[in-house]
Structure formats: structure tokens, C-alpha cells
Amino acid sequence: MSTSSPLRRLLAGNNTAPTKIIDITTTKATITSSRPNCRTPQAIVDYFKRSSECPKFRRQRFHYEITVRQLADANHFSGIEDIIEHQKHCPDIRNEYFVARLILLYGKAKMYDNARKLFDEMPQLKCPRTVFSFNALLEACLKSERYDKIGGLFRELPQKLSIEPDLVSYNTAIKALCKAGSLDSAVYFMDEMEKHEIKPNIVTCNTLLNAFHKSKRFSEAENLWAVMEKRHIVPDLYSYNIKLNGLVKANEVSEAIQFFEEIVNKGFKPDTFSYNAMIKMCVAERNLEEAKMWYEKMMQNGCLPDYATFTMLITLACDANNFDVAQHLCKKAIKSFKAIYNCLMQRVVDGLVEHSKIENAKELVKLAKSCKSFQYELSLPLHN
Question: What letter would DSSP give residue 5?
Fold first, then answer.
């Protein structure tokens, strides 16, 4: 990789060696189906193959995606290959958009080798190959976590097939390289984009910003902000949230508060992730009052708390022995249909009893038991 490129000089920093790719094994799951005759993997395969004879059925992407997900959850990968191979008998197989969908389905099932095989077979199936199906193959590679294949695909296929990679191609490659921890290679790809007169967009920059912050390469993230400004790439709320989280992780409290205000002044409405970052900062500082203030701001601005919000706040309240606040938050979480770990809810019940607030504890247990969305199993500890 060349280190003399303009972008490389702008983002110069510590070299990071590519990280090792770890295979993620799929856990077995029992297949269920809304149709009574589709309770086994093979029954689902058979039903799908019959149904896909209908052109209207083949136009419904949802049918394909849900079936592949069910079979993948059951580790029935031969069934996935069976239903996709069956599609070769359909007239749609000459349509590049249809084949690209099949390639992506292999990717979602982490079956990259099958995706590549189908891509290579497209000429025999009398189906054209353009940058559209090339991008589908790249995405399948990404979804399959075969990040090591990305560079080879870029070196081999465009020249061989006379395909010009586009913005989507480069963004997919950069995302894959960032997930692999190969940030230097990702920056190289961004530089290659510009050599081919393809302008990076906010998706490109957000991917790199996120990777730089996760790798604690903060100076390069700052340099990329400067590059974005210079090249008139306008940051979005996601960009600002990445930087805000970076400041919080670096424990730059005053800078994080100032930056939050800057987000608002730029005309953006902070979202749940923005407020969660500020609450996380308060948790690190063990400052319950400040955390409550951010929670109240969140609610006042019409931003709904999520599971992470409630978990952080309830844990902080328990650590501060403020079980009144913890109980209030638990009730809010239950009524908002946000699942909280049973052990955390039990901790609040135990704390209320320990502080002689028996009726409050009983009220929380009763409310949790009435919750139909989540099955809480809370008990009242013995008390004097």
C-alpha cells in the first residue's frame, strides 16, 4: 500500500495490523412455521420449492428471506442450497436483479462459497453480470464475514469482466476491511476511490470514523473530520454520535458536554444514542443526579429511552442505594415494554425490602408479574 497518497498523509497515524478473523458458529434452533405442514426443515424446503413455481411468489423477497433465516437457524444449509438451486429452473434466472437477490441470500446464510459459485455461473444461466451483481457478491462476502476475500475480488473481477466498481462497491469493501480491523487497507481503498474519480460520501466517512474510534485512533478520526470539511462532505447525526461516544470513552467530560451542545446548535435533534452516551458518561462518574438530568432532558425532547438507557440508570441508582429512583425507572421500563434483566429487577426488589420499603417492593413484583410481554420471575425476600 502506498503511504505517499494525499489522503494517506492526511490520515497518517499508527499502523494497525489486520486482526485475525474469528469464525462465528451458528447455534442450532428449532424451526417453527406459521403453516402447520412446515414444522421440519425439509417440510419448509419442499413447501418453498412448490411455492416458488409461482411468478408472484418469486417477486416477494420476504418469502425468500424468512425461509433462508429459518433454515440457517436450524443449521440446515443443504436446504438453503436446495431452494436456491431450484430457482435456476425459473425464467427469472436470466434477470440480474433476481440472481443478485439469490447471491445476497447466500451471504445472509454465511455461505460465501455458494454465492461466488452462483456469480461465476451467471454466463451459463444467460444472465448478464454488471456492477450490480458484483456489489451483491461483495455484500455476500461481507455478510459471510469472509473479509479476507474482498481484496482479491477487487483485484480479479473488475478487470476480468470489464466492470467499473462504483461508490457502493468501495463502501462495501471499506466496511468489510474496517470490520476485519484492517484500517490502513480501508484508507487505501478510500484513496483508490478518488483515483478513479469516485467521491467518498458520508457513508464512507462514517464507516471509517466508527472504526477509528473503536480502535482508539482518535487523531486519525480528527484528521478525517478535517478531510470531510475540506471536501464538503456534510456530517449527519450518526457522524456526531460517533464523535460524541469517542469523547465519552476518552473521559473528556467537558468536551463531550460542549460537543452535545454543538450538535443541537447545528440543527440536529439528539437521538437515543446521543443521550445514552451522556448517561454513560455519568455512570462512569457515578453521578446519579447528572444522569437523571440527562434522562429528564431526553424525555422532555420527545426521545424515547431504550433498554440500554434503563439498564444504565437502574444499575447506577442501585449502586447509589437510591431504590426509590430505581423502582420508578423499573416501572417506566415495564410500562414502556422495555425488557430489563430479571436479576437487575430482583436487585431493586431486594434493595427496597432491605430499606424497609416492603409495600413498594410488593407493588413492583405485582407490576412485573402482570407484564405480558416479558416473563419476570421476582420474589420477595424474607424480612423482619
Answer: S
